[in-house]
Structures are given as C-alpha cells and as structure tokens.
Amino acid sequence: MRPLHHRQLLWVLLLALPVVLVLGLLSGAVFVTPGAFIATLGDWLAGGQSRDGLILFAIRLPRLILAALLGLVLAGAGAVMQGLFRNPLADPSLIGVASGASAGAGFVVVFGGALLGGGWLGMSLVALGAFAGGFVAVLLVYRLATTTAGTSVSTMLLAGIAISAMAGALNSLFGFFADNDMLRRISLWQMGSLEGANWQRVGIVAVAALLMAVVLPRQSGALNALLLGESEARHLGVEVEALKRRVILVTAFGVGIAVASSGIVAFVGLMVPHWVRLLIGPDHRHLIPCSLIMGAVFMVVADTLARVLILPAELPTGVITALIGAPFFVSLLIQQRRRGYGGVLP
Amino acid sequence: MSLALDRVGLDLHGARLLEDVSFAVEQGEVLAILGPNGAGKSTLLRVLCGEWPATTGTVTFNGRPIQHWRPADKARAMGVLPQDTSLEFPFTVEEVVMLGRTPHRSGQARDRAIVADTLAAVDGGHLRGRIYTRLSGGEKQRVQLARVLAQIWEERDGQHRLLLLDEPTASFDLAHQQLTLDLVRRLAGQGFAVVMVLHDLNMAARCATRMLLLSCGRVWECGPPEAVLTPDNIREVFGVRAVIEANPLTGAPLVIT
Fold first, then answer.
1. Which residues 6+ apart lie within 8 Å of B257 measured at CB?
2. Residue B239 at interface with chain A, using a CB cutoff of 8 Å
3. Which of A15, A216, B214, B237: CA 20 to 30 A from B5?
4. What is the pLDDT of residues B104-125, one digit of tens each?
5. What CA–CA distances, in Å, run from A267 to A250, A295, B28?
6. Between chains, do A234 and B73 touch, taking CB under 8 Å as contact?
7. Region of poorest pLDDT, from A117-131, A322-336, B60-74, B157-171
C-alpha cells in the first residue's frame, strides 16, 4: 500500500546522512580523494595545519554541519506546520517568518549603515535584524488570531497573509531607499546562502535544531489527533491551545534562527515532509523523525551541489533547493498518482 | 448517574440557544435527542461534552462538574462522534481507529486488539488496510464510530462510560443503520450510557429507552418513546400531522406521516 515502511526509511536516511556528509567534505573547488582524506584527517587530529586540512575541517565541515542543521530545522518546522494547519501545503512562511525576516534584514542593510561591521556571537547585524523581524511577524500573526476563545487557525492563515504582505511592502520601501550595492546584498540574502559558515553560527543553529528535535517528536500523538479536527482532538483529551502555542513558538524560534543565519532557503520546509508522507504515510510519530533527518540529508546534498555546479564560482543554496527539489517533487507526485495512490492532494 | 444537566442555558453571540434544560442519563440508558432543524440538538450535545461551557446551570459527568475534568481523564470515559469529520490525510483505516487510543497508554498489543474488535463491531474488519480518504461516506462514518468506540472500549479508573453520537446513521445504508442501532443497544446493556441525536423518529423509537424532544432550545417533552411520540407532540413541534401505530416487528411506536 505504501512504498516504504517507516523503519526502512529511517534506516536508509541514517545511513545516507554520513555518506552525503563525507561526499560533501571531499567535493569542492579542491577535490580530495578518500585516501588523501584519511591521511589529512590523521594529520589534522595530530594538530597539523596542512592546506587540505584547513579546507576540509575549518571551511567545509562547519558549512556542511550548518547545512544539515538548517535542513533539520526547516523540514521539522514544515512537518508540524502542515499538521497544525491540517494542510499538506502549509509551510513556516505561512505564519510570516520568512517575510518578516526579509523586512528585518532589509531594514538593517539600508539603515544599519555604519554599524554593519559589528555583530554578536558570529551573527552579523543583518542576521539579528532578520531574526527580530521574523519573530515579531509571528507574534503579530499569533496575537491577531488569538481571542479569549482560543487561536483560530484560519484567522492565523489570513493574518499571516496580511502581515506577509505588509512586510513585503516594507521590504520594497527599504529597497527603494537603497543604493545598488545594498540592493544586491538584500537580494543575495534572500536567495539563501551558507557562505561564511563558522562554528559559532553552527552552535547557534544547533541550539534551534536540538530544541526542535526534542520538542517536536513529543507532539506527535496530539498532532495526529489534531488532523481529525480541533474538537475531535479535544474529545480525545488533547489540550489543543497549549499544543498550538508550543508548536508555533518553537517553529518561530527555530525558523527565525535558521533564516537569520542563512537567508531564505526555499522549499525545504514544504517539500521534505510532503515527500516523507508520500513514502511512509502521515503518522507524525514517524513523519517527524524521518523529516528531520531527510531535511538534513537534502540540505547537505543541495549545498554540496551549490558549491560544485559552476566551479570555481558558487550558487546560492536556496536556488538549488528549489531548482532541484521542484521537478523531483513533481515527478514523485506523478509517479504516486500512476500507482493509484493519490497521496495527500485531493 | 452518568450525566446530569440542571437548568442549563446557553447564550451565544447574543442569542439564547438553550434554556432551562434539565435531564439525567443513567448507565444502560439510550437517550435519543429529537427535534426539528435549529431546535438546538447539536448545540446541546456540545454543551453535554463540555466543548461549550453552559452560560447558566450545571452539567455534571460522573458526579463531577464537566469543566472540572482534566481533558485526558474525561477522554478515557467519554467518546464523542461528531456529525462529520473531515480528515484529508491518507491514514489507513487501522491508523484512524488507533487515534481513538490517544488518551490511553495501554501498549501496542492491547491497542491493536481493541482496534480489531471495534472495527469488527461496526462491520469494518475488511477495511482495515484501506486508505481512509478513499472510502465512501458511509464507510468513513463507520470507521469514525469505531475510532470513538476504541476510545472507551474498556472501563478505566472505575468511571461510567458515556457515548455521545450526533446523527450516527445519517450516511448509512439500511443494513448498517440497523447494525449500528443494535450495537448501541448492546453497549448500553454492557453499562454504557448513550446520548444520540437522531432525525428519524422511527429509528429512534427502535433504539432509545428514553427520548428528549427539543423545540426552540427548550425541552418540550422527555420520557419513554410512547410518551414522547404522540400525534399532538409531533404536530406542535414539527408542524406535521401523524398517526402512531405499533411497529409489527418490534412493538415500538411507529410514526406514519
């Protein structure tokens, strides 16, 4: 009935993750053979400062780990948003994170001026602006949709559209005041890139990833019940308002940090959970862990491709995720439909 | 006493939807709520299960005010089947019924056995591995009934169990309508209290031990089927002329319009 058993998929993904990480480590402007890799690893661990060692472990490794963590955060956020909105096409951008972050980043680029050199914990000022912008947007959306009777998911969807539109307009306004250099910086940021990854940044995103990996799987049973409908979930003993609050806050925090550190990496949050669902079904107890790891694998592959496709130059990772992801996703949908399993689309 | 309502009233958006509703349901009873469209049947069901708090009066479930129950505790003793449930995600039928076990921690093996039992009880055993979103309307509703039954299949914490059904047979064919009503009576025999909203008066007469006739949010009549299904009541509440005979098969009142 379903293409894969959830345990099979989990094993495949757990095996694939180290494989793509090593492949990613070896590939780039300088290709390293497996033999040289082992020698370099030994040398690096012994405290050597070879050129290959620097490239592999000071430049590529943090970037790869950052990619994996980002994929984990985005895919996990997508999975729970789709459950919360009871809509397989939902993703974190629906609640205004992405557009709010864009506006925040745009504001700092244009008006931050002389402060731009500064930063905090390895995050640039632009990143801080993005995080603040994304978080403020989500809080606004959440507040607008919450009354004494609880949070209305459909109002949240509408509020998300309105706040996103407003943030988009603000962003255009900042663009209007910007000079050419600023404009280019804003648009590059929006494409999403992992250039300039460092261990501090990895550390910050790791906190978000850890939070999601700990909190989200615990919501599985409640999210499953919620797919039946809000009152059905209440009749099953789920405390729906608390669940919504938890999921939204954790998602906003995680995605806010992800977007702040690397710009807007499109499509991962929408596609990965959807893809996992087509393979193993919609049960959140399996969907969430598989999405987290699949997101990591997918982002590592996408970022490696971004680094090697047009050597010696480099593409923005967000462009790759959408360019490769979209056609692959469509072919998957068509395949599933041909097999007589319509999946989640009506 | 499983469920007791004392002078319950409900105001919503400035409109008075229920007024001065009092009744009680005991273990082993099947209470059918009847009334024309807009009389407040589904509203009453929502107040019964605590989804909407009553504006005035009290709802008591197993001796405790309904709003004092912890959600998970309540869910282990009270199952609610809404009129229709929209589930757009491609769960298998077994997984949907398994959702009924959400408030329990009884272990996979026990849960699976209960899911098999409840599916068999609604004549859905053969649907087990099918994808829920591809079932017909009637099949879906049977699976949902099985889910609600799985939720309260076993008595837990010594609490009396209450089953609330909103139009459970609306999309069923004849055979499954009968099967469901027989099932409801059997559950009542096992100590469930059942409250259900029904449109079809004759179906209600075959199954209910007591009836509550609602009109404009007030109790018009409450009592055994013979007392509620009278030509006068039906004329005044539904605005329809009717004759009451005895059903030759069951002896229950038969409304002929």
1. B234, B240, B241, B242, B243
2. no
3. B237
4. 988 889 999 999 999 999 999 9
5. 19, 11, 55
6. no
7. A117-131
